[in-house]
Amino acid sequence: MANAKIIGVGGYVPEKVYDNAYMESIVDTSDEWIVRRTGVKERHISADNEYTTDMATIAAKKAIKNAGITPLDLDLIILATVTPDYFTPSCACVVQRNLGAVNAAAFDYNAACSGFVTGLIIAKQFINTGMYKHVLIVCADVLSKATDYTDRATCVLFGDAAGAAVVAASEETGIMTTDMGADGEGALAITSLAFRDDEEETEKRIAHRKESIWMAGQSVMKFAVKAMADASIKVIEEAGLTWDDISLVIPHQANYRIVDSAVKRMGITEDKVFLTLEKYGNTSASCIPVALSEAVEQGRIKKGDKIVLVGFGGGLTWGAALLEW
Ligand code: UT7
Questions:
Q1: How far apart are CA 24 and CA 95, in angstroms?
Q2: Does the CB atom of residue 156 touch ligand 1 within 6 A?
Q3: What is the mean pLDDT of residues 30-52?
Q4: For the whole prediction, is pTM greater than 0.85?
Q5: Stretch 97-123: mean pLDDT, rounded?
Q6: Where in the chain is the domain with CATH 3.40.47.10?
Q7: Averaged pLDDT for residues 97-116
Q8: Nearest residue CA, atom 11 of ligand 1?
Q9: Into which CATH architecture does domain 176-324 fall?
């Protein structure tokens, strides 16, 4: 059975930046509150005419280049987003066209901020069974276009980004153990509505725009800490390893306090954790691949290192993967 291994990653953030001084100018907040309660200092914001597939294509090209393959080598493109350009076609099909990846099947999926780890698990199945050799995972979101900039409890958190990875069939060890799950009882803890008409949901939103993101921050935080810590511990134990064997953890970058509490629950120190939260805020599923590609670029991950990627998000969902690089 072929192993599934990441052979190339790439990330993209748009140019425009909303720093905390800008957030202070649009809502009743302060740099001090945002930094103390979230850890975010800046978020990158897509241009008015820049959408999910535009950013996804840039990140995908970088990942393909870093993998040393061509778009024609791709068998499958899977794309995670909660802010698609269209309901149909899928963003994955648009990216397939943009790349000229004519041999690839393509579809979108939605696991919110758990999208990258979920994508690794999907890719692993296709590769382990021998069906595909190269799977491109792309995570991209223009959360700024779904953010209510009159709601101080959410608008300070979100930014836009895209991240991608090529997962290939390999004789080397790659994705070792994984865990994913969902708790639909918490489905309404983070919402952004499509066709559904729901007066209660619309009323909850300050600007009454039903597609804008609303969340019950406190209950999501509680869920996140337990889900991320427990899933990480599970993948390590399943591999017969301990934290001493792990050189880096890349968590979903939603709020510094969530990461801090999860790390304490895992029983590790923060020098094992890679964060980009301060620069980009929460960019949904792309947080992990963007951080991963920066960690690789900075030499924080070397061949043979064992790393844990762990996310949580709307759904509610979670996912963790233990990889050997
Ligand atoms: O990837 C998607 C998953 N989403 C998340 O991970 C989000 C998880 N949740 C969170 O990160 C936090 O719950 C928030 C950052 C959203 C909020 O932090 P909190 O510590 O849970 O604050 P809170 O909602 O309990 O609100 C405390 C106070 C409230 O004021 P009062 O009612 O005590 O007067 C809020 O109105 O903080 C106020 N507040 C703010 N104050 C200044 C909320 N947002 C802000 C703000 N600036 N930006």
A1: 36
A2: yes
A3: 98
A4: yes
A5: 98
A6: 3-172, 176-324
A7: 98
A8: 255
A9: 3-Layer(aba) Sandwich (3.40)
